[in-house]
Amino acid sequence: MNFPILSSLILLPIVGTLFLFFTKDKEGNNLTAKYVALFTTVVNFLISIYLWISFDQSTSSFQFVEDRTWIEGFINYKVGVDGISILFIILTTFITPLCIISVNNSVKNRLRDFLIAILIMESFMIGVFCALDLVVFYLFFEAGLIPMFLIIGIWGGARRVYSAFKFFLYTLLGSVLMLVAIISIYWITGTTDVVQLYEIGIDVKYQNLLWLAFFSSFAVKTPMWPVHTWLPDAHVEAPTAGSVLLAAILLKMAGYGFIRFSLGLFPVASEVFTPLIYTLSVIAIIFTSLIALMQEDMKKLIAYSSVAHMGFVTLGIFTLQQQGIEGSIIQMISHGLVSAALFLTVGVVYDRMHSRLISTYGGLVSVIPKYSILFMLFALASLGLPGTSGFIGEFLILMGAFKDNFLVAVIASIGVILGAAYMLWLYKRVVFGKLINEDLKKMLDLNRSEYFILSCLAVPILFFGFYPDPLINTIEVSVTDLINAHNTNIASK
Amino acid sequence: MENLNLILPEIFISLSIMFLLILGVFKKDSSKITFNLSLFAILITAIITINETFSVTRETLFNESVVIDSMSSLMKIITLIGGFLVLVISSTYLKTFKIYNIEYPVLILSSILGMMVMISSNDLIVFYMGLELQSLALYVLATYNRDQLKSSEAGLKYFVLSALSSGLLLYGCSLVYGFSGSTNFDIISNQLNSEEYVLTFGIVFILVGLAFKISAVPFHMWAPDVYEGSPTTVTLFFTIVPKIAALTVFIRFLYVPFLNLIDQWQMIIVFLSIASMVFGAVAAIGQTNIKRLIAYSSIGHIGYTLAGLATASNEGIQSSIIYISIYVVMNLALFSCLLMLRRKDQYYEGIDDLSGLSKNHPLLSLCLLLILFSLAGIPPLAGFFAKFYVFKAVLEQSMYFLAIVGLLSTVVAAFYYLRIIKIMYFDKEKDKYDTDHSLWLKFSLTVSTILILLYFIFPSQLVEVVSRINII
Fold first, then answer.
1. Domain that holds residue B396
2. What are phi and psi of A63, to 5 degrees?
3. Domain-located, residue B191
4. Inter-residue contact B249 to B121 (CB < 8 Å)
């Protein structure tokens, strides 16, 4: 395969932004800009589907690799995908067009600039998932801060400035230590090429510190307890499309980073720090679920539920079992779909009533039935009902956890129950009950574009819930080889 | 016979200064022609420098008191380009304040001459001559808007403190001379040994003097006041051009005469670096005047440059030079934006004046956004690569503490850059600014912003040029 398909995936959104620059920035509904952006992202999605089809599932080596000299004798621009990263790329290209369709209602001013920010964001996120050089990875990982900062800060809610700053500084603080670690790896091993590093391995005596440096970055981004506090703020203040991108894709960068870098590069240290991850994950699951129960703001509740779900993900990754890691990846994909859908459903009622408070609502089922049905589906998927993709992920993670550590698995299972509690309670308070608020009666049900977006998300959630094989087949070989490589590394040291 | 071609740039620029002075005195209303001729002179000098010296690896002249090597020619070229651009974007500003006189270009030319002498010096006396020439020109430039109280204050402050530092420097030089018996850097390098404790005083005095010139903490006190008080174009000149020369001299001092005394000075440089990075980041947070803020930010940036110097390796020196080059471009872009904040012949320099800029001037604020993120060191902009090279060199020497403190202070520094972006993008808009800027101003802003934005596509070119510099 000579055609640089991954680079074109990264570059296409940038090309789209160049076109957007030339569209007129009109007030109100700017259709041209929207169509340009939509066209770009849909083409990108189709390319990524083509990527998935032509992807060879029987090998764990990197495919579609491009390797170019970038800084002479130091860094190569190297990208490639394996079974783990390809799914995240497709998730990114799938969610972005939906975000663009959804901006109709939530973004009132400077639509063109907003679309530019989203497209640039997409390009950076795809870059993160296919970078095979630590420096290139870091570049994309950090660069994403700029558009996200602007998305929250310009189009956000009342406390957007505080949230944007918190988001930016928190993540930057975590990341700079990773930069130190990356440069140190270069001086220790002489390369920053991930594939070569997998082969060479890193001296055990350095691994612990390097692992911690990477951890500091990923933990903030995941986010893990106790550095999760930026997430609810950022989510609540961001516009709907921003929250969707943040929850569906940005959070996955850290989970992906844990699998690709923490496990892959520092096997011994990963073993050493597993108890730490377990503790933090379990606290995240239980503690943030309890916090979610008490929330009065719908977006905040979903934000806290994201933290809890990401707790499952980190737990699954560090079980170092086949099921655990596969479960984590599927959970991340599923959470990407489900949380995006939930934020969009909140966005739907917010656009109509301009309130995110749960107490504003109640009895929606009699006013907007279509909405209520889809909302129910997503709520059930979020709590992991069998038949939805959320179940597959959580189930596999818990299976892996039971193999590795019984106590942790039991506590995490309690988290599943709590998850059911806060989701169902939310659903009950918003959709069922008596219709007290008179204003609600004037609410319109889903319009065509909203219906389309939410159905687009509902289909894969159900499909992968019943038939997860396409996902599992894609990741299986890569995960098996990752664990094998990990075990041989541990055994030899 | 000496090969005078090697110092042809200096000779040419001296002759142009004299000619321009005579022209200015005898011809009436000659400010415009002096301006244009001096631009022309800088351009010619730059061309001569590239032609005559760029391929020279190392040559010495006049009993080895002047050295021409790849570092000196590169730094001279950066100085000249910086000087050219400063001069070219100054004219509208100077006309507004009715100080569009012949002295301005002549003073800039003479300070550039002083810097070129400094850059090439391989001898304490030559160095000191160059330093004084550039300083004296700078004192006058600082007070150039003499009807304004602040400008006079800035000039006086700069003069007093700078004279003090020159005194310290001279005392240090005399001590070093006393112990080595020579003023030539190469001979000093062979004569010095670290047994002599008094010699350490000499080194410290010299370092203090130099640290003052580049405004490293704790010798930075003059910078914010002088930067704020001086005319904006002069501030621009202050923030970029003298720093290039002073940095070159810093490198020369540390790595030629004092190379064997590395144990004595390395800790000092590390301290200066850490103090500048941290202080620059923290002190800028509370500022409300953009020029003061730039003063503190430039203190911070000098800290990063010094971090590269503290490594005692060629990579470190090269990374510092890359840093200062990128810093020059970023500052030029930043000041171009600042000079565009003009409404009815009045220039605005408060941070609040940027409020809501993005609504009235989307392109200008986009440029400023990129520049600020680049100054904060966020990838993929040029500022990130500058920091990246420095910390790569620092970590090669396993100086983890320096690297971690440096990178953490970038997070603090990011805060105040973000604050400006917040004011530009998130706050309510104010009245529009004028848009009839001179072509050169637009040109310098566009080119420097494009360089910042697209640096990541061709990062190797700069590294290649700089990698020819091998001092140790």
1. 258-472
2. -115, 165
3. no
4. yes
Contacts of A138 in chain B (CB under 8 A): 379
Residue A279 domain-assigned (yes or no) = yes
Of A69, A72, A150, the CB nearest to B463: A72
Q: How far apart are CA B364 and CA B26, in angstroms?
A: 42
Cβ neighbours around B116 below 10 Å, total? 27
Cα(first)–Cα(last) distance of chain B, in Å? Answer: 29
Tell me whether residue B41 is in a domain. Answer: no
Rounded to an integer, what distance in angstroms lies between the CA atom of residue A46 and that of residue A35?
16
Question: Rg of chain A over CA atoms, in angstroms?
Answer: 21
Rg of chain B over CA atoms, in angstroms?
21
Find tokens 């379990």 and name the residue.
A282
Q: Are strands B58-61 and A75-81 parallel, antiparallel or unpaired?
A: unpaired
User: How remote is the C-alpha of B37 from its chain's centroid?
Assistant: 24
Chain B, 417 to 456: residues with Cβ < 8 Å from chain A are: 418, 421-422, 425-426, 456
Residue A272, judged by CB atoms within 10 A of its CB (0-12, 13-18, 19+), counts as middle
**pLDDT tens digits, one per residue of A124-173:** 999 999 888 999 999 999 898 889 888 888 887 778 888 888 889 888 88
Type of residue numbered A228: H
Task: Please compute the mean of the pLDDT values over residues A55-61 and round it to a whole number.
Answer: 82
Segment B439-449 mean pLDDT: 90
Total number of domains constituting chain A: 1
Interior/surface letters B414-430, b for 16+ CB within 10 angstroms, e for the rest: bbbbbbbbbbbbbbeeb
At A439 the pLDDT is 77
Stretch 240-299 of chain B: residues touching chain A, C-beta under 8 Å: none
Q: Is A358 domain-assigned?
A: yes
- Asked whether residue B393 is domain-assigned, the answer is yes
Instruction: Please state the rounded mean pLDDT for residues A473-487.
Output: 86
Q: How many CB pairs under 8 A join A and B?
A: 81
Please report, in angstroms and rounded to a whole number, the separation of the first and last CA atoms in chain A.
38
The range of the structural domain enclosing residue A340 comes to: 274-493
Q: How far apart are CA A186 and CA A179, in angstroms?
A: 11
Of B296, B458, B318, nearest in space to B390 by CA: B318
**What is residue B69's three-state secondary structure?**
strand
CA distance B168 to B331: 29
Give the span between the Cα atoms of B298 and A206, in whole angstroms. 35
- Of B204, B323, B316, B308, the closest CA to residue B258 belongs to B204
Whole-prediction pTM value? 0.92
Asked if pLDDT for residue B218 goes beyond 60, the answer is yes
Put simply, the answer to whether A139 touches B378 (Cβ < 8 Å) is no
Classify residue A121: in a domain, yes or no.
Answer: no
3-class SS string, A269-289: HHHHHHHHHHHHHHHHHHHHH
Q: Is residue A473 part of a domain?
A: yes
Count how many Cα atoms sit within 13 Å of the Cα of residue A101 in the half-sphere of its side chain. 20
Residue A224, Ramachandran bin (φ over 0: left; ψ between -120 and 50: alpha; else beta):
beta
Say if residue B153 is exposed, middle or buried (CB neighbours under 10 Å; 0-12, 13-18, 19+).
Answer: middle
Closest partner CB to A160 (pick from B378, B400, B426): B426
CB A455 within 8 A of CB A379: no
Give residue A378's region: left, alpha or beta (phi > 0; psi -120 to 50): alpha
Task: Closest CB to B410: pick one of A168, A176, A183.
Answer: A176
Number of domains forming the structure of chain B: 1
A382: tokens are 């979020």
Q: In chain B, positions 39-68, which contact chain A (CB-CB < 8 Å)? A: none
